[in-house]
């Protein structure tokens, strides 16, 4: 083969590859949500964990607006009741109920009873595993060597163990009420790993692994329960240190992020980045050579630490 033919082949393959990537990206952005598949049977319900604030609360509002009744999970009963009272004013024909459980406490027979009591008489078809936290925001970005034992357990209990046990209890219900949907809120850290997020990264990788494996198990058994992990970059929530003033193309509001997430329901892949701005950020980071990406992340985290040290 002549050098001319080799160059032509390489050029055509490159154009073909990027053309295919572009077409897939376009198809993803234009995908129409299949959420209404899960709005079936008498009075369908969705359950959202960590529903008293931020992204979880935005999911609650989005489900209510789309005709689902909603179970709000949280740890602060008074806060949840106040939210329910407000929601009830806005969505008069929708039912809301609460599931009050500190996700940091290990599972027990009482845990099972509390969860099952909250869902025993409803047609549950959707679950969103959204809750996350360490139990102490001071350690949200910390060197592994500085994290006390209590908070190691906090990260693992809230992010991984609670989600596991909630899945153990609720998946049989979704299977009974097929078709069903289970969403797992993951994070950019599984795509672009930064220092000082060791337990957060570890538990989010766990969540994604769980979602991917469950998706295959559903296919293996011919069950119609969609499993999808949502990769999330920064969203303008108070817990991420942001407010509405920070909203931008790369940092959506909670409502915009949740709408984009629900728009991707039915896409058929176990792991999606619903917000376009996050997708472009991740693609840029992944295009960099590993050493350049690491240097960039080290610089960003160092700057954040210096900023935090100045505030203290
Ligand atoms: N915001 C971001 O930039 C971002 C980026 C990547 C991924 N995410 C992911 O998105 C999800 C939601 O994040 P968010 O920013 O919306 O968080 P958030 O505003 O801090 O809300 C977290 C929710 O979880 C509840 N919660 C925390 N610890 C709990 C516990 N031990 N027991 C019961 N409930 C508990 C909180 O309850 P209280 O109201 O009582 O505090 C609140 O309802 C998380 O999975 C997070 O990892 C967020």
From TrEMBL:
GO terms for cellular component: endoplasmic reticulum. The keyword Oxidoreductase applies. The keyword Oxidoreductase applies. Keywords: Oxidoreductase. SUPFAM superfamilies: NAD(P)-binding Rossmann-fold domains. Pfam families: adh_short (PF00106). InterPro entries: NAD(P)-bd_dom_sf, SDR_fam, VLCFA-Steroid_DH. GO terms for molecular function: oxidoreductase activity. PANTHER family: RH59310P. Belongs to the short-chain dehydrogenases/reductases (SDR) family. This is NAD(P)-binding protein. It comes from Cladophialophora psammophila CBS 110553.
């Amino acid at each position: 083969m002549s050098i001319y033919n080799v160059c032509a082949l390489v050029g055509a393959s490159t154009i073909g590859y990027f053309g295919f990537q572009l077409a897939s990206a376009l198809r993803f952005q234009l995908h129409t949500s299949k959420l209404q598949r899960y709005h079936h049977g008498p009075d369908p319900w969705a359950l959202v964990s960590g529903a008293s604030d931020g992204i979880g609360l935005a999911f609650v509002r989005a489900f209510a607006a789309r005709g689902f009744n909603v179970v709000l999970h949280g740890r602060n009963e008074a806060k949840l009741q106040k939210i329910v009272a407000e929601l009830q004013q806005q969505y008069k024909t929708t039912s809301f109920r609460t599931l009050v459980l500190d996700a940091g406490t290990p599972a027990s027979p009482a845990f099972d009873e509390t969860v099952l009591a909250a869902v025993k008489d409803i047609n549950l078809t959707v679950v969103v595993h959204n809750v996350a936290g360490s139990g102490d925001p001071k350690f949200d970005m910390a060197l592994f060597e500085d994290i006390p034992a209590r908070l190691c357990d906090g990260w693992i209990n809230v992010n991984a163990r609670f989600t596991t046990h909630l899945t153990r209890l609720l998946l049989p219900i979704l299977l009974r009420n097929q078709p069903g949907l289970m969403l797992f809120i993951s994070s950019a850290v599984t795509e672009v790993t930064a220092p000082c997020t060791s337990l957060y990264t570890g538990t989010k990788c766990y969540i994604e692994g769980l979602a991917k494996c469950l998706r295959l198990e559903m296919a293996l058994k011919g069950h119609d329960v969609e499993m999808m992990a949502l990769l999330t970059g920064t969203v303008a929530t108070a817990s991420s240190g942001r407010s509405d003033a920070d909203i931008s193309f790369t940092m959506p509001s909670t409502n915009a992020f949740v709408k984009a997430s629900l728009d991707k329901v039915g896409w058929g892949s176990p792991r999606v980045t619903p917000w376009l701005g996050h997708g472009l950020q991740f693609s840029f980071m992944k295009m960099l050579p590993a050493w350049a990406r690491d240097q960039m992340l080290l610089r960003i985290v160092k700057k954040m630490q210096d900023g935090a040290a100045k505030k203290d």
